[in-house]
Every structure is written in structure tokens, then in C-alpha cells.
From TrEMBL:
Species of origin: Candidatus Berkelbacteria bacterium CG03_land_8_20_14_0_80_40_36
Gene Ontology terms, MF aspect: structural constituent of ribosome
InterPro entries referenced in this protein's UniProt entry, alphabetically: Ribosomal_bS16, Ribosomal_bS16_dom_sf
Keyword Ribosomal protein attached: yes
Name of this chain's protein: Small ribosomal subunit protein bS16
UniProt-annotated stretches for the region Disordered: 81-136
Sorted UniProt keywords: Ribonucleoprotein, Ribosomal protein
GO cellular component: cytoplasm; small ribosomal subunit
Bias (Basic and acidic residues) ranges: 95-124
Upper lineage: Bacteria, Candidatus Berkelbacteria
Name of the encoding gene: rpsP
Gene3D superfamilies: 3.30.1320.10
């Protein structure tokens, strides 16, 4: 499947990105099919080939979330929208719920420990009698 995404170029601490069309199964830094533009995040400079992007979208190319956000207000196309991942949101919600559930169970255990107490009565042991042993 064809995907339009960013490919990092530039030096350390000076990122520049190319907007490229590439096969989605290939690594990001591997050969791309076509360079469609570039983006400089420091100066927010964005330059792209609108005709080429619209042509690829017409062929059914997908767009990465970052590229979709960059081009959202500049190019009008029905498939040019950031992809929301409901699975990731559901996982975040579940982890928050489990954390609150864990804290609630810890609170109940602490309350039970406070309320449960063992009374030890003083008893006299006759001389010569063996001491009682506790087994757990």
C-alpha cells in the first residue's frame, strides 16, 4: 500500500523532513517512490507539490497523521484527515480505570487491616508444662 509520510533528513538537532510517497511495508529511511515536498519544523516552512499529492490520493494512497495535520487546511480532499486510533484511546481509558480500581482495593485492604485486631489474653502456664507452639 502506498503511504504519504515524512522522512527525516538533516543533521543532529537540526531536523528537516521530506514529504515522500513510499511503500508502507518499507522502513521510513529506505528508498521512497517520489519526493513530494519538504517541511522545516524550526521555521515552519512547508513546500509541497499539490498536484502530485492529489494524484496519489486519487490512486488510494494513505496519509500519515503528521502529514495530514500539516496539509489539513491547505489541500481539500476527503481522505486527507488525521487517523484517530480508538484502540489506543480505549487502552488509555482502561489503564486509568485499573489504576483507580487498584487504589480502591488497596484502600479497602488497609481499612480491613485497621479494623481487624487480635486480642491476646494473659494466661498463666503451670510450671513444667510445655509452651504452646504456633504453626502457620
Amino acid at each position: 500500500m502506498l503511504i504519504i509520510r515524512l522522512q527525516r533528513t538533516g543533521k543532529k538537532h537540526e531536523p528537516h523532513f521530506r514529504i515522500v510517497a513510499a511503500d508502507s511495508r518499507r522502513h521510513v529511511s529506505k528508498n521512497s517512490i517520489k519526493v513530494l515536498g519538504y517541511f522545516n519544523p524550526r521555521t515552519k516552512q512547508l513546500k509541497y507539490d499539490e498536484k502530485a499529492i492529489l494524484e496519489l490520493l486519487g490512486f488510494g494512497a494513505k496519509v500519515s497523521n503528521r502529514v495530514a495535520r500539516l496539509l489539513e487546511n491547505k489541500i481539500k480532499h476527503k481522505t486527507l484527515k488525521p487517523i484517530n486510533h480508538p484502540e489506543k484511546k480505549a487502552k488509555k481509558i482502561k489503564t486509568k480505570e485499573t489504576k483507580t480500581e487498584k487504589s480502591a482495593t488497596e484502600e479497602t485492604i488497609a481499612k480491613e487491616k485497621e479494623t481487624t485486631s487480635v486480642e491476646i489474653k494473659d494466661t498463666e502456664i503451670p510450671d513444667g508444662a510445655p509452651l504452646p507452639t504456633l504453626t502457620l
